């Protein structure tokens, strides 16, 4: 299942252009819109729902609070959780073309944890000689694991590894086992989860004399791991 999310703007064309240019087959489109005094975003959403329906898409809409960062994050993440439960292999994309800076920031932050593509459609009126596919910008994002699925203990271990690394201390699974009063074999279950999630990596460990210790591996936190810790 492929779910595409998009902010409704003042005009429907940018949203429609993005959908036409996306290379993947979309199964469901979810429009995010805010309530305004002139009802412009509601009107655009109605137009989009009608046009997309005529194009054969299954559509729905969700109201967001345009100046509430957490509301936007929660709305998008709740959509992700809902459809991930229905289909664990579900894929997502987010179109930030019509979003304000705050909306786009919230969408990008949430997209990291959804492992979703983020799209921005350039103004077709400025590039009339180019096809839509050339105007579609894909914003790269690191692949971040679903924090809730990692579990609290694994996250605590990740936090410990980061703190020790910040103190310029080498961390091995034995150190983690000692800190959490667990057997090394039990700790490796969590270490492997963090490895699979892509938030840590294993490197050569060294003896006090500076030689490689072939019996051990040092645990290093990656950029993605620090991003997770900032989020939680």
Low-confidence stretches: none
* Beta strand count: 8
Mean pLDDT: 90
Sheet with most strands: 6 strands, mixed
The CATH topology of the largest domain corresponds to: Rossmann fold
Instruction: State the share of residues found in helices, binned by percent.
Output: 40-55%
Class by SSE composition = alpha/beta
Query: What amount of the residues lies in strands?
Result: 15-25%
What's the overall geometry?
elongated
Strand order of the largest sheet: 3-2-1-4-5-6
What is the architecture of the largest domain at the second tier of CATH?
3-Layer(aba) Sandwich
Please tell me the total number of domains. Answer: 2
Q: What Rg do the Cα atoms give?
A: 22 Å
The run of helices and strands is: EHEHEHEHEHEHHHHEEH
General description of the model:
The chain is an alpha/beta fold. The chain folds into 2 domains: 140 residues, 3-Layer(aba) Sandwich (Rossmann fold), CATH 3.40.50.10770; 84 residues, Winged helix-like DNA-binding domain superfamily/Winged helix DNA-binding domain (Arc Repressor Mutant, subunit A, Orthogonal Bundle). The protein is 47% helix and 21% strand. Helix 3 runs parallel beside helix 4 and helix 7 packs across helix 9. The radius of gyration is 22 Å and the shape is elongated. The protein starts with a strand and ends with a helix.
Give a brief outline of the structure.
The protein is of the alpha/beta class and about 230 residues long. It contains 10 helices and 8 strands.
